[in-house]
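Lecture notes, part 5. Sequence design as translation. It can be helpful to think of inverse folding as translation between two languages: the language of shapes and the language of residues. The source text, in structure tokens, appears below.
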């Protein structure tokens, strides 16, 4: 048989060194010469996939308990986190559109093989940490809505791979639409609950202005102070996988890269899309904090886990006003909360899988079907959740709930660890005229804001690391355990700084070499 007519054999795991998310890269047509709103509509979608990461189950307890403990004090932290997110996601989308490489591909192309593998492993751990929160959120939602035992509910979350299989057949534009619909479900639930609670809107808007109390070490309420609450919100909001995802899905629109104006238009409308969707995420996170203030009596909710919040929404003794109490008796408040939690988990399933594929293809040039990628990641992620459920099976329900909540919160440690290694390369590459061209490199203002954001987030995350590691020892840790936790944290911080120095050196050396090649060409 002639070689050209021989059908190509496909394997489950293949070598990949092509365009980012090749199956959907450049597949969405966009109109030219149309009005602003029609053009924006066609560019809208990737921003929604990114915004999902800013309102996933990991954000919920930090925002709600932050509101219940400190009223509207931490509203300014949610605002600052959202503004930093807009800046970082703008740079991520611009990198993808201009260089035609996602962040993983760009890092791998500009660093040594050894560093590339280290950063790949680190990023994979961060995705699995994010997935743990999604497993816990989805499993608890199934338990609350359908009374499915937690062990079975955890196993059921594995089968969301079937949902992903279905979605891969309907086209990327429809996936974007489904994600937007799920975001609107979440938004509706919290708008409804907050509207019933009649919050103090003057206090809400006043809380948007940061004060010296925002990052203070006291007072301590329920084991949390404003600083730890702020770090929890920041850690749960700005996550590394979103930067990789946005740099890839921003390339789904057809762009004529020989036409600089077409590239500029794509960057502009992608930025509009991202900022609009992240504004929705800001509203959702604000509503979560407002719920903590306005829905519950101060300090009334002793169990900040999803179980505790679900029960509190049907417990008239902890609710703050008569309208809420009347609605709570019907059970609708708690049911809506669980529905929103399930919607959040499913949204994160879609985006987490796409991100995993981007990272695997970009860093190690390995490609596998999306359903297999999802299955592998989810099966690894359910192991710690199942162990947690099994180890607490003979304890009281409250102890089980607290253990799951602690596991979810502790899983965020990896996010704090991994975040600088996506932010720093992103900033350095988008600041480079060699990578981006003079027109698309960061402006002086964006450059300064970027460095301030990267340094501030890295310092805050490192500052919160000792407390995060202390959390692994529970609420009644001994002095020796706390000392051990602090020593571990300092070693981890030293490793982070050393790895950051290695990353900066590799990127600087590569950029210098690339500049010389460009000049000699």
């Amino acid at each position: 048989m002639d070689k050209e007519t021989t059908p190509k054999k496909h394997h489950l795991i293949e070598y990949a060194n092509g365009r980012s998310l090749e199956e959907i890269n450049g597949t969405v047509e966009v109109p030219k010469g149309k009005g602003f709103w029609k053009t924006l509509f066609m560019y809208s979608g990737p921003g929604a996939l990114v915004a999902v990461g800013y309102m996933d189950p990991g954000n919920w307890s930090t925002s709600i308990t932050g509101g219940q403990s400190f009223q509207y004090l931490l509203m300014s932290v949610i605002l600052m986190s959202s503004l930093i997110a807009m800046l970082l996601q703008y740079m991520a989308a611009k990198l993808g559109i201009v260089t035609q490489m996602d962040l993983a591909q760009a890092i791998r192309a500009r660093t040594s093989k050894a560093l590339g593998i280290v950063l790949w492993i680190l990023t994979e751990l961060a995705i699995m940490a994010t997935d743990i929160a999604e497993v816990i959120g989805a499993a608890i939602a199934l338990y609350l809505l359908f009374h499915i035992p937690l062990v079975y509910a955890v196993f059921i979350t594995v089968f969301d791979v079937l949902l992903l299989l279905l979605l891969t057949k309907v086209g990327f534009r429809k996936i974007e639409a489904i994600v937007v619909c799920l975001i609107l479900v979440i938004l509706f639930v919290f708008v409804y609950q907050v509207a019933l609670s009649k919050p103090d809107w003057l206090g809400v808007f006043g809380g948007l202005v940061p004060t010296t109390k925002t990052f203070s070490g006291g007072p301590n309420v329920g084991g949390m102070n404003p600083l730890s609450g702020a770090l929890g919100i920041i850690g749960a909001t700005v996550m590394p996988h979103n930067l990789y995802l946005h740099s890839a899905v921003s390339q789904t629109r057809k762009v004529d890269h020989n036409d600089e104006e077409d590239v500029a238009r794509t960057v502009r409308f992608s930025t509009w899309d991202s900022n609009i969707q992240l504004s929705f995420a800001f509203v959702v996170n604000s509503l979560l904090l407002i719920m903590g203030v306005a829905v519950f009596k101060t300090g009334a909710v002793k169990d900040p886990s999803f179980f505790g919040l679900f029960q509190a929404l049907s417990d008239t003794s902890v609710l703050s006003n008569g309208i809420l109490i009347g609605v709570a008796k019907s059970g609708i408040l708690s049911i809506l909360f669980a529905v929103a939690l399930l919607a959040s988990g499913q949204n994160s399933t879609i985006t987490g899988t796409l991100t995993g594929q981007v990272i695997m293809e970009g860093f190690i040039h390995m490609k596998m079907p999306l359903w297999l990628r999802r299955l592998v990641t989810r099966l690894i992620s359910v192991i710690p959740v199942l162990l947690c459920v099994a180890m607490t099976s003979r304890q009281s329900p409250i102890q089980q709930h607290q253990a799951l909540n602690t596991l979810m919160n502790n899983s965020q440690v990896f996010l704090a660890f991994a975040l600088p290694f996506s932010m720093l390369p992103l900033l350095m590459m988008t600041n480079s005229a060699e990578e981006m061209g003079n027109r698309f490199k960061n402006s002086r203002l964006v450059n300064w804001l970027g460095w301030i954001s990267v340094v501030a987030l890295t310092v805050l995350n490192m500052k919160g690391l000792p407390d995060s590691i202390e959390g692994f020892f529970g609420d009644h840790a001994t002095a020796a355990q706390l000392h051990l936790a602090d020593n571990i944290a300092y070693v981890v911080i030293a490793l982070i700084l050393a790895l950051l120095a290695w990353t900066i050196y590799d990127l600087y050396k590569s950029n210098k070499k690339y500049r010389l090649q460009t000049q000699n060409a």
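The translated text above is only one of many valid answers, since several sequences can fold into similar shapes. Residues 479-520 form the longest helix (42 residues).
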